[in-house]
Structures are given as structure tokens and as C-alpha cells.
UniProtKB/TrEMBL annotation:
<keyword id="KW-0067">ATP-binding</keyword>
<feature type="transmembrane region" description="Helical">
    <location>
        <begin position="59"/>
        <end position="77"/>
    </location>
</feature>
<feature type="region of interest" description="Disordered">
    <location>
        <begin position="568"/>
        <end position="631"/>
    </location>
</feature>
<keyword id="KW-0812">Transmembrane</keyword>
<dbReference type="InterPro" id="IPR011527">
    <property type="entry name" value="ABC1_TM_dom"/>
</dbReference>
<keyword id="KW-0472">Membrane</keyword>
<dbReference type="InterPro" id="IPR039421">
    <property type="entry name" value="Type_1_exporter"/>
</dbReference>
<protein>
    <submittedName>
        <fullName>Type I secretion system permease/ATPase</fullName>
    </submittedName>
</protein>
<dbReference type="Pfam" id="PF00664">
    <property type="entry name" value="ABC_membrane"/>
</dbReference>
<dbReference type="InterPro" id="IPR036640">
    <property type="entry name" value="ABC1_TM_sf"/>
</dbReference>
<dbReference type="InterPro" id="IPR010128">
    <property type="entry name" value="ATPase_T1SS_PrtD-like"/>
</dbReference>
<dbReference type="Pfam" id="PF00005">
    <property type="entry name" value="ABC_tran"/>
</dbReference>
<feature type="compositionally biased region" description="Low complexity">
    <location>
        <begin position="568"/>
        <end position="579"/>
    </location>
</feature>
<keyword id="KW-0547">Nucleotide-binding</keyword>
<feature type="transmembrane region" description="Helical">
    <location>
        <begin position="146"/>
        <end position="175"/>
    </location>
</feature>
<feature type="compositionally biased region" description="Basic and acidic residues">
    <location>
        <begin position="603"/>
        <end position="614"/>
    </location>
</feature>
<dbReference type="InterPro" id="IPR017871">
    <property type="entry name" value="ABC_transporter-like_CS"/>
</dbReference>
Length: 631
């Protein structure tokens, strides 16, 4: 669970403060607009009390010109106010857009199951609220007392009656929100759950179709959807009652205020012009309350969006700027590193230490769940170390600027993901395309000729997730992406899972080419063909290093261990690696971890007279080995 940093600045409040001058300008414009709103009332009062009594056409003409000028001025003020708010909303998006996107990305890294883009929708809600009628109602609300004071100068009874009506409107709206909040919250929860599950199911349509699972999926979705619809209907029923009650109060207030003013005219306490003016002023005094009532739902949604964005930015603050470091050479050191899955407590990697020199090529093997993919994520900085330090060229990996370090890292995850774009754009990592580097990367994985056979060559769209390509094609393009440019550390997680013999040979050649150019590579694999290009071998078991050293020596030690009884554990089995530059010894950790050790089957050489020597592996050129792991 990620906890907010109390020392982190409130970035959302800081962004809004930068827009303070614009909001002050809008408030000033709103003040002038509300003063201009007195013009219709004054005009009607003068017409009834002065023009009709004096029957002076010149006075009527002058009053009409004045009120038309006031209306024109009001229209200009409203237009300028709208322009300002549109630019304020665009400015807010400019200030927060990339920051919210990076925080959303950070959350997905630390909470892998949470792939929601809700924060971006929240920013859109906040931005659109700046140009909506709800904000205008908020700016107009402080001027309602002015209208009440003017009404009170004519009649205190009408002023009290108008204020009471406004309070009733606000009370009904507040009660409506309280009654509907719980039901709408539950409906939203079921809606998000059904959408999340449906999105997951639609990504596996082939499995659903092949095994006839559509009916079960439909019933599961229908159950959640029915609960959502029922809760929404309950909230809508209550909202309909409250909404119509609000409408009744609002319309009644306008008529009753006129009736009360007429009664006062009959009693001689008010003139006919005052009656008309008071009626218009009452309507204007109720306008902010009506605006708040009509836009209450959007205002509540905006408040919720603001709170969620505030929490997100506090939980995932901006990465502090790091001082640029020299280009790395590929030296890697793990110093008592332990980590767990984001949000989890069970350690997957447990206090491991080792060193890799530039140019090392390490194959990592082990049973399922041994921590191989977690090791890959630690190597490229996707998951942080909970204890210990992962170093690249002596510097803590978390201290590197990711944007500057990225071109020096090549990574092929176990679950291959391509992005919606062309083959060239995917290989070039969606940066500025260097055609020569793109072709070189494709040639290094032996895929250049096949790309040329695609409908548009390197300009062929791969579709969302690489849907237009086969599994092997996606893997070769993702491998070329990992090798694009000049990476000094390349981490490949099951790079040959979808490759044919030709593809595996190309992979082996690419790994050897990396070593020949002094680049460090780490290959996680279950297939022996990838071992032929590695000069070192690491065996993981239950999150600890069971063996590590030169490839042939580790294989011999593991096979010898499987054939002989256990021997004492070397003291340096899981300690820090040898001094930099030294060739590490073979480390075989024979201590039993928390779970039973996997069984290792020895390589059994047959007598030459009975059986010919085994055929070498076609891709690696290595004799086959019989090292197997059981879960």
C-alpha cells in the first residue's frame, strides 16, 4: 500500500494558485455583470412610475437607449469572461496534463492490477468545469445579498420571503445529494467492476469462443450490470422526486413574490413600478441558488475529481531531478537485494548479491516462481528494491534519470507488448526514427528480410498490441526494439518462447554480438539453446541464488550435485560477489530454502561403444544437457 508523503507539495493547489489572477479577473467581470443586471429592474420601475405617469416619449426613448447600451455592455462582458475561462481551462490542462499522466503511469507500475485511466478523466472533468455554468453560479452567488439588500430597501417582507425561498432550494438540493450518494456510489462500484471484467474478457475472445465460455461470461456480466442498473434506478427515483420538488419551489417563489408585492401595493406600501422591479430582483436573487441547484451534480463530481487528483499527486510525487551521469558501461552489482511484488509482503527475491562485468552474458534458469522475472524487473528498474541496492556502474539504479538511461537499456518482457504504430516506430521506441539504426537492429535479430516482405515493409502498421502480426513476428520486433541504438545492458525474459530454429539462431548470434561489443546481457530462459551464447550461468531457487559462475563449471557442478550426496555449503554461497574484474567462482548453494529444493537430474553419459556422441543443439552448438527443474 503506497502512503502519501506529508512533505510533498499540493501540486493541484499550486497549479490553481498560478491561475489566481485570471480568477480575480473573472470575479471582477462577474461583479460588473451583476451590477448591470439591475438595469432591467430599474428600467421597468422608471417606465411604470415615471413614463406612464408623465406620458413623456422623450424620457421613454432615452431610458430605452440607456438600457440597450447596458445590455450591449453585459454581452461584451460575458463574452470576455467566457474567453478568459476557456483559456484558464487550457492553461490548467497545460500545467497538470503531463504530470497527471506520469502519476497515472507511476501508479500502474506500483499497482500492476490498476490500469484505470480515471485520473485523466478526472482532469478533463476539472478542466470542463471551469467553462461550465456551475462555476458561473459560484461567481454569482456572492452577489445575491446585494439583490436582497435592494429588495429590502423596497420591502423587508419580500426580502425575507426571497431569502427563505433560496435557503429552501439549497436545503432540498443538499438532501437530494445525501439520499442519492450511497446508491450512486454503489452503482459506480459495480459499473467499474463490470467494465474491468468485461475489458479483461474481451482480451481473451479466442479462448472464450474456443471453449464455449460466452454464456458464463454473459451471465457474470449481466449479474453485475443488473445490480448497477437497480441502484441507479433507485437513485434516479429519488432524484426525480427532489428535482420536481425543487422546480415547484422555484416557480412558486417567482409567482408568490409578485403576489406579495401586489398585496403591498394594495396596502399602499409600494408603487406599481416597485412591484415590477421587486419581482425582477427576486428572480435575479434566486438565480445563483437556481444555478447551484441545477449544477449540483456536476459540482459534486468536480469536487470528487479534485480530491482524487489531489490524492494521486500526493501518493505519486514527481520524480526529483537527478544529476546527469556519464554513459554507463554495463557493470551491474546487486548488494543484498530483496524485493516483493508491488503491494505484496512475501519476498520474491531474498537478499541476493552478485556482480556482472561489462560484456558478461548471463543465462538465468530456475523453476517457475523462483524469481527470474522479478530479477529482470529489478535489473531494469521497474520494481524497486525493498532492501539492498541495485547498482549500474556503481550508481544506485534509482538515482539514474530514466529518460537519459532509457537508450542504454534494452528490455524484452515475458509478456510482449507492441504499440499501435508502424514496425519502424515500434523498433525505434516511438522516438525520432533513425532509419539506419532501425535496420541494424532488425538485422541483428535476423528479421530484416522478413520485415521487407510485409505489405508496407517497415511502414507496416502492427495494430493495437501487434494484433496484425504472429507471435513470432511480435517477439522478433520486440527483440529488435530491445537492441535498438546502443544499449549497454540488455535483459531478455524468455526471448525464444515463440521463435523457430532460425529465430533461435539469430537470437544466439545477437547475444554473442552484444558480448563481442562489451555489452552486458541477461537472458532468462527455459530452453538450452540460449545457454550457448552465455558465458555465465545463474540458477535461482525460491528467490535465492543456488549457483552462479562460468557456464560449463556451473553445469558440471549441478550435474555432479545431482549424482552425489550433498556436501557442506561454501561460506560465500550467497554473499557479495568477487572483486570487480575477477572471474567469479562457481557458487553452489546447497542450503535448503524454505521450500524443498527442486530435483536435478544428472547428465548420464552413455559408453561410447554402445551409443554415439549426442548431437549438438542446432542453434547453440552445445551438447544437450539434462538439467531439469520440478515445481
Amino acid at each position: 500500500m503506497v502512503s502519501p508523503n506529508p512533505s510533498s507539495p499540493d501540486e493541484l493547489k499550486h497549479a490553481l494558485r498560478q491561475l489566481r489572477s485570471a480568477f480575480v479577473t473573472v470575479a471582477v467581470f462577474s461583479g460588473f455583470l451583476n451590477l448591470m443586471m439591475l438595469a432591467p429592474s430599474l428600467y421597468m420601475m422608471q417606465v411604470y412610475d415615471r413614463v406612464l405617469g408623465s406620458r413623456n416619449e422623450t424620457t421613454l426613448f432615452v431610458l430605452t437607449l440607456l438600457v440597450l447600451g447596458a445590455y450591449l455592455f453585459m454581452a461584451a462582458l460575458e463574452t470576455i469572461r467566457s474567453w478568459i475561462l476557456v483559456r484558464v481551462s487550457a492553461r490548467l490542462d497545460h500545467l497538470l496534463g503531463l504530470r497527471v499522466l506520469s502519476a497515472t503511469f507511476e501508479r500502474m507500475l506500483r499497482q500492476p492490477g490498476n490500469s484505470s485511466t480515471q485520473p485523466l478523466h478526472d482532469l478533463t472533468t476539472l478542466r470542463q468545469s471551469l467553462t461550465g455554468p456551475g462555476l458561473i453560479a459560484v461567481f454569482d452567488a456572492p452577489w445575491a445579498p446585494l439583490y436582497l439588500l435592494i429588495i429590502a430597501s423596497f420591502s423587508s417582507e419580500v426580502a425575507v420571503f426571497t431569502m427563505a425561498g433560496a435557503l429552501v432550494l439549497v436545503a432540498i438540493t443538499w438532501l437530494n445529494e445525501k439520499l442519492a450518494k450511497a446508491a450512486l456510489g454503489e452503482a459506480q462500484k459495480y459499473s467499474m467492476q463490470s467494465q474491468r471484467e468485461l475489458s479483461s474478457h474481451l482480451q481473451n475472445v479466442e479462448v472464450i469462443e474456443a471453449m464455449g465460455m460466452l454464456g458464463q461470461i454473459q451471465r457474470r456480466w449481466q449479474k453485475l450490470h443488473t445490480q448497477e442498473i437497480g441502484l441507479q434506478a433507485r437513485a434516479s427515483d429519488r432524484a426525480a422526486v427532489m428535482g420536481n420538488l425543487t422546480k415547484f419551489v422555484r416557480i412558486s417563489m417567482q409567482s408568490l413574490s409578485l403576489g406579495l408585492a401586489a398585496l403591498l401595493v394594495l396596502e399602499g406600501k409600494m408603487t406599481g413600478g416597485m412591484m415590477i422591479a421587486v419581482s425582477l430582483l427576486t428572480s435575479r436573487a434566486l438565480a445563483p441558488a437556481e444555478g447551484l441547484v441545477g449544477n449540483w451534480a456536476s459540482l459534486v463530481a468536480t469536487g470528487s475529481a479534485y480530491q482524487r487528483l489531489k490524492e494521486l499527486l500526493l501518493l505519486f510525487p514527481a520524480r526529483p531531478p537527478a544529476m546527469p551521469l556519464p554513459a554507463p558501461s554495463g557493470q551491474v552489482a546487486f548488494e543484498n537485494v530483496a524485493t516483493a511484488a508491488p503491494g505484496g509482503r512475501a519476498a520474491i527475491i531474498k537478499q541476493i548479491s552478485f556482480q556482472l562485468q561489462a560484456g558478461d552474458s548471463v543465462a538465468v534458469i530456475g523453476a517457475s516462481g523462483a524469481g527470474k522475472s522479478t530479477l529482470a524487473r529489478l535489473l531494469v528498474g521497474i520494481w524497486p528494491a525493498l532492501s539492498g541496492t541495485v547498482r549500474l556502474d556503481g550508481a544506485d539504479l534509482v538515482r539514474w534519470n530514466k529518460q537519459e538511461l532509457g537508450p542504454y537499456i534494452g528490455y524484452l518482457p515475458q509478456d510482449i507488448e507492441l504499440f499501435d504504430g508502424t514496425v519502424a516506430e515500434n523498433i525505434a521506441r516511438f522516438g525520432e526514427i533513425d532509419p539506419q539504426l532501425v535496420v541494424v537492429a532488425a538485422q541483428r535479430v535476423g528479421f530484416h528480410e522478413q520485415i521487407l516482405r510485409l505489405p508496407q515493409g517497415y511502414d507496416t502498421p502492427v495494430g493495437a498490441g501487434g494484433a496484425a502480426l504472429s507471435g513470432g513476428q511480435r517477439q522478433r520486433i520486440a527483440l529488435a526494439r530491445a537492441l535498438y541504438g546502443n544499449p549497454v545492458l540488455v535483459v531478455l525474459d524468455e526471448p525464444n518462447s515463440n521463435l523457430d530454429d532460425m529465430g533461435e539462431k539469430a537470437l544466439t548470434d545477437a547475444i554473442k554480438d552484444l558480448s563481442s561489443r562489451g555489452r552486458t546481457s541477461v537472458i532468462i530462459t527455459h530452453r538450452p539453446s540460449a545457454l550457448g551464447a552465455a558465458n555465465k550461468l545463474m540458477v535461482l531457487r525460491d528467490g535465492v541464488i543456488a549457483a552462479f559462475g562460468p557456464r560449463e563449471e556451473v553445469l558440471a557442478a549441478l550435474n555432479g550435485r545431482a549424482m552425489e550426496a550433498p556436501a557442506p555449503v561454501p561460506a560465500a554461497a550467497n554473499s557479495a560477489g568477487p572483486p570487480r574484474g575477477a572471474v567469479p567462482p562457481v557458487l553452489v548453494n546447497k542450503q535448503a530454502p524454505s521450500a524443498p529444493a527442486p530435483a536435478l537430474e544428472p547428465v548420464r553419459a552413455e559408453p561410447p561403444a554402445r551409443k554415439a556422441a549426442p548431437e549438438p543443439d542446432p542453434a547453440s552448438g552445445m551438447p544437450p544437457f539434462n538439467l531439469k527443474f520440478s515445481d
